[in-house]
Structures are given as C-alpha cells and as structure tokens.
Amino acid sequence: AADKIRLIPQDFFAELCEQIIQHLNHKIPGVNTAELCQRIQTSGVEINVGDLAKIANILSFIFSTAARNNLSTEELVTTLGSAGSTLPKHAVQVIRHVWNEQGKAIAVSEDARNMATMGQFVDLKWKLGVAMSSDTCRSLKYPYVTVTLTVADPAGQITDRSFEMTIPQFKNFFRQFKEMASVLETV
C-alpha cells in the first residue's frame, strides 16, 4: 500500500484524508473512490480504484483507531513511525495536518460504532427502456426499468448497484415505496 500511496499527489491524498474524516464524523455518507480515482488518473498518475479503496480503508482504520484511543497529533505520528510504517513523508505530513485540524471532532460513541456496521443509502436513479430486438429475437418491444442504487458500505466506499425489472415488478416496487412513505408519515 505504501508504494501506491507514494504515487498519489499530496493534494489528492489530503482530499482523501479529509473525506474519510468527514465520513467518520457522519457528515458525508462515504468516499467516492471511483470519482477520486478518475481525477487522479486524469492528472497522469496510474492507480486503479481497487488500490485506492484499499488505501481509503487503511486510512479509515488509522483515523478511527486514533479517535478510539483518543490520540493526540504527536502520539498518532509517533505511533505511525514506531509501527515500522513505511508511509512516505508527504503522507505522514498530510495525516498529521488533517488529524490536527479535524481529527478531534470524530465522534466515536458506542452507538455510532454499532450503527456503522450497516451500509447507507445515498441515491436512487431509474430509467425506462425498451428492448427492440436481439440476436435471437427480431421483435422484442419489451419495456423494462433499470434502477441504480448508490450505497456507501460501512467502510465508506460508495458503489452503484444496478438491476432491471419488468413493468409489473416495477409497479410492485413502487407500491412498496408508497407503503413505506405512508407508514413514515404516521411516525
């Protein structure tokens, strides 16, 4: 991971650290590593989303452990150095700065830790389509609905999950959402 961290420019690494702190503070649902990875690649750095997600998980672990143990900035930097860490200097400097500026705000109550074991719904998008034909069937004219759910897993990684439904399946899906909305209005 240290080799991959060396590749990331300092400004992008700082942005990643700040997003992780915001996620741990429950200010954002997660870190969109796919979008950040694309921007890093556009800047000319070769890194893939999987590697960036691993780095984000490591940083999340570092920050949440530091918060749980109520470490000061100097204690965190000393711990990173004494753990045989091979983190590059620029990464340690960024971690020091971000932790010094925003780290103390991380709420690590027992309730917050227990709630973090479940993912969080971020967005839902849908579109209506019609399959006109295929290799095996010349005339389908089959309507369908594509639904894309954006969710943040407990580690804060934002992912999209897509699925297709027939019109009757979508009507049932919609009916269930209406039922949920009416129940929520009574609460």
From TrEMBL:
Top-level division of the source organism's lineage: Eukaryota
Pfam families: COMM_domain
InterPro entries: COMM, COMMD4/6/7/8
Transmembrane intervals: none
Described purpose of this protein according to its UniProt entry: Scaffold protein in the commander complex that is essential for endosomal recycling of transmembrane cargos; the commander complex is composed of the CCC subcomplex and the retriever subcomplex. May modulate activity of cullin-RING E3 ubiquitin ligase (CRL) complexes. Down-regulates activation of NF-kappa-B. Inhibits TNF-induced NFKB1 activation.
Family from the record: Belongs to the COMM domain-containing protein 6 family.
PANTHER family: COMM DOMAIN-CONTAINING PROTEIN 4-8 FAMILY MEMBER, COMM DOMAIN-CONTAINING PROTEIN 6
Name of this chain's protein: COMM domain-containing protein 6
Lineage: Eukaryota, Metazoa, Chordata, Craniata, Vertebrata
Gene designation per UniProt: Commd6
